[in-house]
Amino acid sequence: MRSTTPLVWELVSHLWFLLVLVVLTTVSLVLFSRLRRHVSEKSDAFFANITLGKLSLLFLVLGIIYAAIRRTLFIVYPPILSDGLFNFVVMQTLFFLPFFLIGALAFVYPQLKSLFTTPSPWCAAGAALAFAAYLLNQRYGSGDAWMYETESVITTLMGLWMVNVVFALGHRLLNFKSSRVTYFVNASLFIYLVHHPLTLFFGAFITPHIASNTVGFFTGLVFVIGIAIVLYEIHLRIPLLRFLFSGKPQVKA
């Protein structure tokens, strides 16, 4: 029972996060429609002069507010935080909602978009320091004290800075002329679609036989990406699958 319980939790939590995405998408549809109707000159001026420093300060405040909400729930009614459905549907949705909103606003305000597509050494350094702080908090923090609240603030800032690191790198790679980059860009949607079942399979049947987390991580990376690429190549050679997953039939030269 001890060995199966974590596996069941990994399966359920992975699927529940997809539920979080559904909730976020539904909530965001309402919020985005209201944002379009209530965009004002003040918001235009704010985002026209936005900087990573201001954005980091804003997300620091949001992280503190989230931590305060969690702490209040812990004081008022602790069992609610042990409810998996509440944690995923409510708490996880609250945590990721600012990232969803800032992503939508990046399509509206060019200055905001440029912040995420322009490499920032400060964001790279901040993300590395935040990750170190996260590990230290995990190792020396106490769940009975402020470990989870501290983690909320750290991960909020780390998430923002990592958006710059990943998006800036991705933007540069996508504009770099290379057959390998083009190949992975074309394969990215297919890899995303199949990585979920491959990850679950690896976690359920292979992870229990690997003692080291580091070895398990890199083995899983090779396993998932390797098989995903093989499946991608197979689907390219079957017209029906190519049409279903890539959206268009193969063009004959």
TrEMBL record:
Q: Quote the EC number.
A: 2.1.-.-
Its transmembrane ranges are: 15-33, 45-69, 89-109, 121-140, 152-171, 183-204, 210-232
Molecular function per GO: acyltransferase activity, transferring groups other than amino-acyl groups
What would be one Pfam family of this protein? Acyl_transf_3
Acyltransferase domain residues are 9-232
Q: Which UniProt keywords apply?
A: Membrane, Transferase, Transmembrane, Transmembrane helix
Is Protein biosynthesis tagged as a keyword? no
* InterPro entries, per the entry: Acyl_transf_3_dom, Glucan_succinyl_AcylTrfase
- Superkingdom as given in the UniProt entry: Bacteria
Protein's name in the database: Glucans biosynthesis protein
- Species of origin: Enterobacter cancerogenus
